[in-house]
Amino acid sequence: MSESTISQDRSQQDRSEQELDRLAELAEDVIRRARAAGASQAEVAASINTGLSVNVRLGEVETVEHTRDRGFGLTVYFGQRKGSASTADLHPDSIQATLDQACAIARYTEADPAAGLADAARMATSFPDLDLWHPWDIDTTRAIELGIEIEDAGRAHAGISNSDGASVQAGQGVSVYANSHGFVGRERGTSHSLSLALIAGDEDGMQRDYWYDSVRAAGDFISARALGDKAAERTLARMGARSLSTRQCPVLFVPELARGLIGHLLGAVSGGALYRQASFLLDHVGKPVMPGWLNINERPQLRRGQGSGSFDAEGVATSDSALIDGGVLARYVLGSYSARKLGLESTGNAGGIHNLIVDPGSADHTLDDFAGMLRRMGTGLLVTEVMGQGVSTITGDYSRGAAGFWVENGQIAYPVEEITIAANLREMFAGIVAVGTDVDRRSHILTGSILLERMTVAGE
User: Fold this and answer.
1) pLDDT tens, position by position, 237-291
2) Which residues contact 10 (CB under 8 A, 6 or more apart)?
3) Could you tell me the CATH superfamily of domain 3-237?
4) By the 8 A CB rule, do 97 and 33 touch?
5) Residue 1 class from Cβ within 10 Å (0-12 exposed, 13-18 middle, 19+ buried)?
6) Which SUPFAM superfamilies match (predicted)?
7) Within 247-386, where are the H helices?
8) Domain ranges of the chain
């Protein structure tokens, strides 16, 4: 790295610290003013996000966007009456108007016994460096060049007939959460991505597919050539897709879709669904919901993790915790409001889950990579795309359009499309056969491919 680049990185770092100081001072001042206006409690979330987004198609620039977004949200409590207001303008007049509006709302709302800040004793006191801040020193010209390089790599493959374009995005943000317990939490992080979508076509039809990469630090990207190659390979592999006759068979979800299955689990064990009694996993803590060999753990302070943080959206300290322990649901996923509604305690998940790690494994203790997962399935359906919203958290019913590949004797035989896969999430979770070692690290849900014992596949 050159001295000029190091100097620029330090300059960006210095500005981020100054912006954090400014947001923290503003948050503390507004909380003091809210208390003076009669609020018994108050909390503020403030942020500044900047970014560059470039899209190119067929070697030409389609869009260039520079963003600088500000956000300021205030919640006040008058006893157990709550009022919230927000603004995207940090000018003093806008902040004062936001404060006045939040107080006015609180004075006229009904009291809610579950309302209020998280418990003061749960506030984070330790703020380790989680290695989340890696500004990408890329200008518009270089971003355009990189997008064209990615697209050229994909379009160079024989059979690729068109492109839906490549995108290059660089982003960074700083945020502060503060409340009247005296807690002030500062966070800063970066998020960068590359993507490419391609089209292949012949006399039998056309197919489209894509690939992308998402990282905290630009140095962690796969190469432009590798991304272009991957997008092209995925697109060309879909050529000649056919449907299937209706059947029941094993189904293997690739890692980027397997995390969606875990997302459905999270939806069913999250506080909002539970206190509304809208979950098929209501009253399931301490009960088996997955095979006994399977473990899922939350690791909120994973260095450079996509979902890392030392405190949640209410300032509650995060810590390592089991969600599924030996197949048993170990806990729910709660912020303080939902916890109070359920007569429980916050799990430090206000604002959502942090890094969730699904341990690879199987009943026979064998660890399989993707090729091994195909061999384990033998004959069945490999799902690489799902469509539609046919998933019910209330009943667990699952029915979605899908595309992918039919697998025979552990080898991909041919692509398939225009099919529907269906089952019930309760049976799907209990019927997990194996989790692969082919972990997709582009998300805060870290899992390999997931093999299910059986689903109904409806086609022709």
Assistant:
1) 999 999 999 999 999 999 999 999 999 999 999 999 999 999 999 999 999 999 9
2) none
3) PmbA/TldD superfamily (3.30.2290.10)
4) no
5) exposed
6) Putative modulator of DNA gyrase, PmbA/TldD
7) 255-269, 271-275, 336-342, 370-377
8) 3-237, 247-458
